[in-house]
């Protein structure tokens, strides 16, 4: 117990700081750290070293080497630097390495030394060179700020969405500032710089001089400044060995400290934890490390070798040639439990559990003590929390064991916090492993979220571990395992030395039918690497044919795309492919392709009908579809053409087509129509009025109505209008004219082919009872009753019906007998019926 | 699309700047965007998609409101709506759980069904484990049963549709119905109490019912005479509103009935019905043919004539060549040559065909089967090539007993079977199929009928083995009509449901009737 707090160092009354080893580094550094440009990514990220920087004025013939290591010192990449001199290195939030060159070009490399892209920080930089650069992190992503040889600042708040912002000039700035840093306030990036005794704050509009409140007098220059991880606090180191600590807004002073060392520190970083009241700054010189805070004394460490500080969310990582350590403020829970002679419930619980294991009755005493104070719940929570902050698994275990022991005596303690802590710790221990080398603390892990952590594992190509974590945490497959598998597959297709066959098979074996895996995305990646064949093979595995199409189109496999689109049944997709094909192929080939795809063909026809009538014609021509061709021309004859001649010509073409289609009937009908059109034209010329576009029937009717009976007859003969029709036609037309005389003449011209009942009907429709009666007498016997009823002669109808002895007719007449007037008739029928029945 | 583009361009020329929004329903087509791009207005409009699929017209009727479906699919062979249908099915199955039993007949049905299955597979997991709420699904292509759709409707709702055209569940009654100078828009669904009671009735009953109702209403009004103040207050506050409402509805429907009566008697409706029945039963074909001829000669109505011709063709397995020619000639003479295209359309859809001389049933069949196998090989250039589809109506009618034996007068007041929707002369084929299949729980035993329908490979049953469907859900049946259904069919199935204790829910691409079918097939001058 005593030795556990041996590495705890008190700062002031209330806080302890401890430093423990994360890894012993076994990287094989050939040169001192101080000779390298160093960049370490936060959140236990990788370390980049660029050896042999140019500032040492060494022989230019030696090419420097860029090396990337994991936080545990395992080499990840190493490449010869072939580009220009580098001013600064830094990691973006996506763990991409940004290398700022002297000429303002920023080269972006992946974790494994793969070149990604580059961008420039502006033309102005080209002449003036970059003096200094910083990579900083904001809520939008990672930004780059540079200081040019002309002492101007340019920054971009997000390298992913590059927008350069040139900061205003600092008045009277002749030499480079002694120190500067970027601040992030109100979602905007600012620059704070120190020139001699003055501080200036640059925002995009203006440059303003600022003074920190309560700054000790006698400062002639600022040697170092540091902003906390969250941009909330600022520390200034002056040439008098005085450290000012306050808020980043420079409105409030938190504390100050005088270390009496005038040498400029190598590094100064904040060391604080979220939600803690303690503020401390770690200052590093060549061989000395000092933690200063709101206390008269500081904590001092001796550095045996060159070290480098990496600020973290809740502490500072310190790595050197041989070790990698973590320095942080001891969290409250741990402090309460482990502080010497602590009587906190957690401490008692831990003790109780230990005694219990020793089978000592003291366990009961301790437990009782906690329970009497009613603090058991609190004790369990404390143990759980403290376990999270422990680095060593054995300590985690003993704390968790204590928590679970305490839990037994609680009725209703929700188990999820305990379970979740166990899970989290397992994950953390796994990734902290030397081979993985991501030394995340519990707070960092919570801040980073499991999703980001998985992404980082994927980025390091640690697919199996990522999958195991997903499975262990039971993440939904789509978010977890499938996503990782897809990433793996995307990586796999980039391995150029493996044959297409093998890659495709390997991928399919691994991925199988995992839900949410998009083979098309993987195929797109393969295509991006120039492996079209592989892409096609991969697409075969894609179950949704709809997804295959766009990529196939992109790869110019349009015909395959077409059949896939048809398979998917999504007509819109088919359309897309069709239109694509149309532009890609020449007409003949296009049509030939269509011929083999009936569905596509019918779709395309539909499209042509609305958009490109001419193409439609060509389509029919190609297919020798004369029937449709004929129809097409017929449509054209009345839809497209205005002039009679044009219409006749269109009809002629149609007729020819119909003949070819062996549709004689249609051909004849078309020819008739041609004749009719010409005739109608002539009629219009001779008689005036409107004839064109009337049907034959209507034409004849119009003629009759116009009193041109002769012509009407002639027309009827020419076009072989059947007699029945002609009679109906004339009958209606004459009745409409109310030309009763003519009608009578017509009725007597010869025996009516339609009988005389229609005459009666039509007359009655015109309400001419008189005329109707005339014809009623001429109606044949079988329809006589109907005719008589129509003209309203019920009595006579009854007589005829009785005469016919027709039951149905009798009923019909009877149904017409209404009112008193017909009572007699009704009687008569009833009697006749009775008689008939008697017989 | 061109129209929209031209609007935008006109505005541009005129120097106006407006915001344009195009809403595509039910689906945005890539081709439309292309047009916009070609016209150079793509950047000026913003596009949105309204995945509108199902419109509930009534408590048991869902419509996709795709009247163009019929022409697009059955005539042009355009399959773009199949996706929409599958989406709609998918939507229903996500809402109501998986469908344990599915039956279907027809090519379009099959394609839609397969596509839907695929959709389900892609998105599996969600519906699994849910208790199915709909026990049976029955899908049916319109072309399986044209006859029913072609007959004149005589149930009230169907008649109203035939006469006034019901649009999206509401109808515009003109001045002749409302007996005022304003026309009235009436929503026709189960909310309308009066309508709900008469919608499925044969028209001959409707008048009697309405007058009875009117008397009841009067009696209720009369009750207030003997009331004291308190009762009166009660009456006014509670019942009067309902009565007033009922009164209003009643007068509307009486007006509609009168108007229908007037129209129908004027056009020799009786004759027409008689001819139809003769066609259905297959006697006195000659007289019917000449009746149709007369019909055409007199220019009664182009659509009606066309309808009768189609009915004749389907029931008679195509017209004999002489009639085919003469009727066509007559029709062209009456209504103009553009109908040459109409005839070609009808022929393609199999609605109006010519009897191929010497073509026996088996010959046609071999042709059909060849078509099917060819299609499988993917060789056939046009699946909808002008193959004379045989209807075999007569044989089917015999097999399924569609024409009920008439012994004595058919009592339309107390219907015995589904034939009542056609005055007892004919049981709708589509409904009979559904009845039979539901009874057998599969197509088994109906092989012959299926063969006669030319659907040998297009009928399917799909049953899930696990029987976790509750008995209540098994009573619930979703009937899907691809290409539209008529109100008569709905009425007939409602009747069947009452008889057998089923509850039917209808999903149709659109509510249709004979006139709409014919219009879809007609070429009209632009």
Automatic annotation (TrEMBL), chain A:
Its main location: membrane. One of its GO terms (biological process) is vacuole fusion, non-autophagic. GO terms for cellular component: CORVET complex; early endosome; HOPS complex; late endosome membrane; lysosomal membrane. Residues 517-835 form the Vps16 C-terminal domain. It is a peripheral membrane protein. Residues 349-376 form a coiled coil. Gene3D superfamilies: Vps16, C-terminal region. Keywords: Coiled coil, Endosome, Lysosome, Membrane, Protein transport, Transport. It is found in: Late endosome membrane; Lysosome membrane. One of its GO terms (molecular function) is actin binding. It comes from the Eukaryota. Residues 4-420 form the Vps16 N-terminal domain. Core component of at least two putative endosomal tethering complexes, the homotypic fusion and vacuole protein sorting (HOPS) complex and the class C core vacuole/endosome tethering (CORVET) complex. Their common core is composed of the class C Vps proteins VPS11, VPS16, VPS18 and VPS33A, which in HOPS further associates with VPS39 and VPS41 and in CORVET with VPS8 and TGFBRAP1. Interacts with RAB5C. Interacts with STX17, MON1B. Associates with adapter protein complex 3 (AP-3) and clathrin:AP-3 complexes. Belongs to the VPS16 family. Plays a role in vesicle-mediated protein trafficking to lysosomal compartments including the endocytic membrane transport and autophagic pathways. Believed to act as a core component of the putative HOPS and CORVET endosomal tethering complexes. This is Vacuolar protein sorting-associated protein 16 homolog. It comes from Odobenus rosmarus divergens.
UniProtKB/TrEMBL annotation, chain B:
InterPro entries: Sec-1-like_dom1 (IPR043154), Sec-1-like_dom3a (IPR043127), Sec1-like (IPR001619), Sec1-like_dom2 (IPR027482), Sec1-like_sf (IPR036045), VPS33_dom3b (IPR043155). It is a peripheral membrane protein. Its main location: cytoplasm. Gene3D superfamilies: 1.25.40.850, 3.40.50.1910, 3.40.50.2060, Syntaxin Binding Protein 1, Chain A, domain 2 (3.90.830.10). It comes from the Eukaryota. Pfam families: Sec1. GO terms for biological process: protein transport; vesicle-mediated transport. It is found in: Cytoplasmic vesicle, Clathrin-coated vesicle; Late endosome membrane; Lysosome membrane. Keywords: Protein transport, Transport. GO terms for cellular component: clathrin-coated vesicle; late endosome membrane; lysosomal membrane. Belongs to the STXBP/unc-18/SEC1 family. This is Vacuolar protein sorting-associated protein 33B isoform X3. The lineage of its organism: Eukaryota, Metazoa, Chordata, Craniata, Vertebrata. The gene is VPS33B.
């Amino acid at each position: 117990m005593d030795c556990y707090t041996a590495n705890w160092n008190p700062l002031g009354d209330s806080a302890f700081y401890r430093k423990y080893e994360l890894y012993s580094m076994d990287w094989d550094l050939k040169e001192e750290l101080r000779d390298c440009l160093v960049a370490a990514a936060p959140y236990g990220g990788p370390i980049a070293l660029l050896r042999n920087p140019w500032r040492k004025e060494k022989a230019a013939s030696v090419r420097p080497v860029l090396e990337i290591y994991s936080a545990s010192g395992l080499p990840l990449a190493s490449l010869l630097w072939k580009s220009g001199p580098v001013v600064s290195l830094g990691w973006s939030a996506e763990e991409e390495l940004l290398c700022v060159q002297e000429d303002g070009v920023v080269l972006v490399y992946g974790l494994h030394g793969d070149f990604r892209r580059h961008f420039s920080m502006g033309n102005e930089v080209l002449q003036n060179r970059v003096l200094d650069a910083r990579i900083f992190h904001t809520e939008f992503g990672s930004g780059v700020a540079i200081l040019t040889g002309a002492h101007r600042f340019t920054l971009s708040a997000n390298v992913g969405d590059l927008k350069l912002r040139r900061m205003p000039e600092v008045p009277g700035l002749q030499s480079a500032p002694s120190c500067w840093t970027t601040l992030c306030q109100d979602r905007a990036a600012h620059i704070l710089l120190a020139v001699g005794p003055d501080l200036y704050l640059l925002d995009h509009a203006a440059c303003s001089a600022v003074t920190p409140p309560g700054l000790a007098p006698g400062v002639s220059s600022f040697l170092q400044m540091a902003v906390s991880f969250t941009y909330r606090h600022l520390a200034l180191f002056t040439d008098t060995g005085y450290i000012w600590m306050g808020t980043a807004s420079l409105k409030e002073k938190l504390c100050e400290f005088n270390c009496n060392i005038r040498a400029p520190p190598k590094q100064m970083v904040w060391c604080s934890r979220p939600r803690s009241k303690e503020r401390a700054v770690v200052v590093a010189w060549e061989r000395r490390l000092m933690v200063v805070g709101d206390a008269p004394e500081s904590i001092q460490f001796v550095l045996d070798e060159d070290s480098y500080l990496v600020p973290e969310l809740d502490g500072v990582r310190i790595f050197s040639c041989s070790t990698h350590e973590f320095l942080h403020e001891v969290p409250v829970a741990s402090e309460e439990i482990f502080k010497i002679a602590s009587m906190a419930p957690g401490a008692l619980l831990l003790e109780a559990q230990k005694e219990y294991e020793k089978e000592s009755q003291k366990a009961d005493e301790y437990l009782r003590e906690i329970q009497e104070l009613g603090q058991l719940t609190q004790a369990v929570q404390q143990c759980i929390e403290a376990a999270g902050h422990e680095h060593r698994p054995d300590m985690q275990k003993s704390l968790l064991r204590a928590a679970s022991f305490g839990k037994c005596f609680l009725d209703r303690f929700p188990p999820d916090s305990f379970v979740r802590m166990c899970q989290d710790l397992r994950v953390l221990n796994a990734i902290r492993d030397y081979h993985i080398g991501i030394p995340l603390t519990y707070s960092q892990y919570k801040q980073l979220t499991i999703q980001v952590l998985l992404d980082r594992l994927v980025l390091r190509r640690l697919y199996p571990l990522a999958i195991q974590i997903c499975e262990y945490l039971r993440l939904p497959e789509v978010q977890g395992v499938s996503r990782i598998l897809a990433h793996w597959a995307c990586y796999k297709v980039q391995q150029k030395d493996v044959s297409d066959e093998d890659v495709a098979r390997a991928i399919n074996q691994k991925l199988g039918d995992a839900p949410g895996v998009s083979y098309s995305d993987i195929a797109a990646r393969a295509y991006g690497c120039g492996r079209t064949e592989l892409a096609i093979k991969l697409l075969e595995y894609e179950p949704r044919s709809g997804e295959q199409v766009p990529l196939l189109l992109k790869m110019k496999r349009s015909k395959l795309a077409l059949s896939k689109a048809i398979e998917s049944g999504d007509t819109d997709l088919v359309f897309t492919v069709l239109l694509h094909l149309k532009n890609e192929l020449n007409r003949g080939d296009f049509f030939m392709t269509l011929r083999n795809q009936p569905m596509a063909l019918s779709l395309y026809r539909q499209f042509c009908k609305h958009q490109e009538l001419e193409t439609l014609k060509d389509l029919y021509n190609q297919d020798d579809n004369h029937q449709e061709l004929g129809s097409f021309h017929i449509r054209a004859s009345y839809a497209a053409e205005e002039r009679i001649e044009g219409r006749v010509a269109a009809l002629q073409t149609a007729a020819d087509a119909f003949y070819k289609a062996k549709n004689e009937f249609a051909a004849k009908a078309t020819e008739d129509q041609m004749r009719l059109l010409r005739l109608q034209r002539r009629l219009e010329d001779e008689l005036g009025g409107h004839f064109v576009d009337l049907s034959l029937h209507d034409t004849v009717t119009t003629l009759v109505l116009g009193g041109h009976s002769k012509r009407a007859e002639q027309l009827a003969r020419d076009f072989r209008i059947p007699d029945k029709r002609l009679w109906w036609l004339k009958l209606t037309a004459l009745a409409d004219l109310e030309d009763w005389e003519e009608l009578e003449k017509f009725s007597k011209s010869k025996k009516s082919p339609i009988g005389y009942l229609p005459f009666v009907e039509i007359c009655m429709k015109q309400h001419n009872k008189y005329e109707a009666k005339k014809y009623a007498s001429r109606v044949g016997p079988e329809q006589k009753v109907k005719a008589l009823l129509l003209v309203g002669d019920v009595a006579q109808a009854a007589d005829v019906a009785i005469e016919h002895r027709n039951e149905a007719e009798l009923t019909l007449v009877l149904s017409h007998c209404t009112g008193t007037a017909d009572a007699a008739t009704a009687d008569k029928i009833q009697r006749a019926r009775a008689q008939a029945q008697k017989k | 699309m061109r129209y929209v583009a031209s609007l935008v361009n006109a505005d541009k020329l005129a120097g106006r700047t407006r915001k344009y929004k195009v809403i595509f329903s039910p689906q945005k087509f890539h081709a439309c965007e292309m047009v916009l791009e070609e016209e150079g207005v793509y950047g000026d409009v913003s596009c949105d998609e309204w995945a509108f699929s199902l419109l509930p017209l009534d408590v048991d009727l869902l419509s996709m409101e795709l009247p163009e479906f019929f022409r697009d699919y059955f005539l042009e062979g355009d399959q773009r709506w199949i996706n929409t249908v599958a989406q709609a099915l998918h939507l229903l199955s996500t809402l109501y759980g998986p469908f344990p039993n599915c039956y279907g007949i027809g090519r379009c049905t099959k394609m839609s069904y397969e596509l839907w299955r695929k959709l389900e597979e892609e998105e599996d997991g969600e519906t699994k484990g849910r208790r199915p709420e709909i026990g049976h699904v029955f899908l049916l292509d319109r072309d399986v049963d044209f006859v029913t759709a072609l007959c004149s409707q005589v149930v009230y709702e169907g008649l109203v549709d035939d006469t006034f055209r019901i649009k999206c569940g509401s109808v515009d009654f003109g001045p002749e119905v409302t007996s005022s100078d304003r026309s009235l828009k009436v929503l026709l669904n189960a909310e309308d109490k009066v309508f709900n009671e008469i919608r499925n009735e044969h028209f001959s009953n409707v008048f009697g019912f309405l007058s009875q109702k009117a008397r009841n209403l009067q009696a209720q009004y009369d009750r207030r005479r003997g009331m004291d103040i308190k009762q009166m207050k009660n009456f006014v506050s509670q019942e009067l509103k309902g009565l007033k409402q009922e009164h209003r509805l009643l007068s509307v429907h009486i007006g509609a009935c009168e108007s229908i009566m007037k129209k129908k008697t004027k056009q020799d409706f009786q004759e027409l019905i008689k001819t139809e029945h003769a066609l259905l039963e297959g006697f006195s074909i000659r007289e019917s043919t000449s009746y149709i001829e007369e019909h055409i000669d007199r220019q009664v109505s182009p659509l009606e004539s066309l309808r009768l011709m189609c009915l004749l063709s389907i029931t008679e397995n195509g017209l004999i060549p002489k009639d085919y020619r003469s009727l066509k000639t007559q029709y062209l003479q009456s209504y103009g040559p553009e109908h040459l295209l109409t005839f070609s359309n009808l022929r393609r859809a199999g609605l109006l065909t010519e009897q191929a001389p010497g073509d026996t049933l088996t010959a046609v069949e071999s042709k059909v089967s060849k078509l099917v196998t060819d299609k499988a090989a993917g060789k056939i250039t046009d699946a909808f090539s002008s193959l004379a589809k045989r209807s075999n109506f007569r044989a089917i009618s015999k097999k399924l007993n569609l024409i009920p034996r008439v012994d004595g007068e058919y009592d339309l007041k107390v219907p015995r079977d589904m034939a009542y929707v056609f005055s007892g002369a004919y049981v709708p084929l589509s409904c009979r199929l559904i009845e039979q299949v539901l009874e057998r729980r599969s197509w088994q035993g109906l092989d012959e009928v299926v063969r006669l329908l030319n659907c040998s490979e297009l009928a399917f049953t799909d049953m899930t083995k696990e029987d976790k469907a509750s008995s209540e859900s098994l009573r619930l049946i979703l009937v899907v009509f691809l290409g539209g259904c008529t109100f008569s069919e709905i009425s007939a199935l409602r009747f069947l449901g009452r008889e057998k204790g089923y509850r039917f829910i209808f999903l149709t691409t659109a509510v249709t009737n004979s006139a709409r079918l014919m219009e879809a097939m007609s070429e009209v001058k632009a």
